[in-house]
Amino acid sequence: MVAVTTVTVIRAQEPLGSEAEARIWLTRLEEDEFIQTLLDEALATVDRAFAAEAAATGRPYAESPALGQILSARVGFGDGDHVSEGRFTEAMEVDARGGTASARRERLARTRPLARIAAIIGGKDSARACEYLIPRVRADLDASRVLAAALAIENAVRATVVEMDGVLDEPDHERDLDRIEAMLPDLTVMTDTLLADPKVWAGLADSLEEPLLIAERVVRRQRILNQ
Questions:
Q1: pLDDT digit string (tens) for 6-55?
Q2: 85 and 171 together in one domain
Q3: What residues pair up with 92 in beta bridges, in sequence order?
Q4: Staple 139 to which of 64, 67, 88, 222, CB 3.0 to 4.6 Å?
Q5: Domain-terminating residue out of 59, 85, 112
């Protein structure tokens, strides 16, 4: 049994002035970049909703929603009462997972590591902690949850250094591990500072990018070269 959730995201911040204007807007679905923008906006909104629910209920969500999880997507328009119930005056199916969609989505669809997913589910393989922690830091940072990302990145990077040590005999891999290991003392100071006074300061988000990008590269390289 697979749980399927239906979500309706309403762009209330950009209401359409008339049905004629809405029909013209709908013709933009011929532009693949426009579809991508709408899908990215929708996923970001769902991610914020998940995060808000986690904060309010104490039940953490496992991961941010992704394009590959979308089984079916429709884009359309309607009045407030209809769209709030998931009904449209007019709507079109869009390809969210690949096929005739953008090269980026086709690439994502082709490279999903299905074999490893099956191995992990079947108990023949196991995921490292950093493979969970690093994407969560990225999801928080991309969703502007800077404080959450900043408080989590030290442990995520530390786990990456420990768990990825020696898994590849590759100079770039070792060089990247050395770089993020050298950043750990500063990350510890940052964490302690934020725990003492949890206020986001200017430039904090930017300071997280370098260690996060390197850790992401380490995890990605291992995934590609040492499956």
A1: 888 888 888 888 888 888 888 887 787 888 888 888 888 888 887 777 77
A2: no
A3: 75
A4: 64
A5: 112
Q: Which domain holds residue 73?
A: 19-112
Domain-embedded: residue 197: yes
Does residue 67 sit in the same domain as residue 144? no
Q: Determine the Cα–Cα distance for residues 17 and 135; give it in Å rounded to an integer.
A: 39
Distance of CA 24 to CAs 53, 169, 191, Å?
A: 36, 56, 50
**Amino acid identity of 171?**
P
CA distance linking residue 143 with residue 136, whole number of Å:
11
Q: Decide which of 70, 86, 112 is a domain's last residue.
A: 112
How do residues 177-207 score in pLDDT, each as one tens digit? 999 999 999 999 999 999 999 999 999 999 9
Q: Are 132 and 217 found together in one domain? A: yes
97 shares a domain with 136: no
If 0-12 CB within 10 Å is exposed, 13-18 middle and 19+ buried, where does residue 147 land? middle
Contacts of 178 (CB under 8 A, 6+ apart): none
Do the beta carbons of residue 73 and residue 96 sit within 8 Å?
yes
Q: How confident is the model at residue 169 (pLDDT cuts 50, 70, 90)?
A: confident
Residue 16, classed as helix, strand or coil, is: coil
Whole-prediction pTM value? 0.60
Residues 145, 202 within the same domain: yes
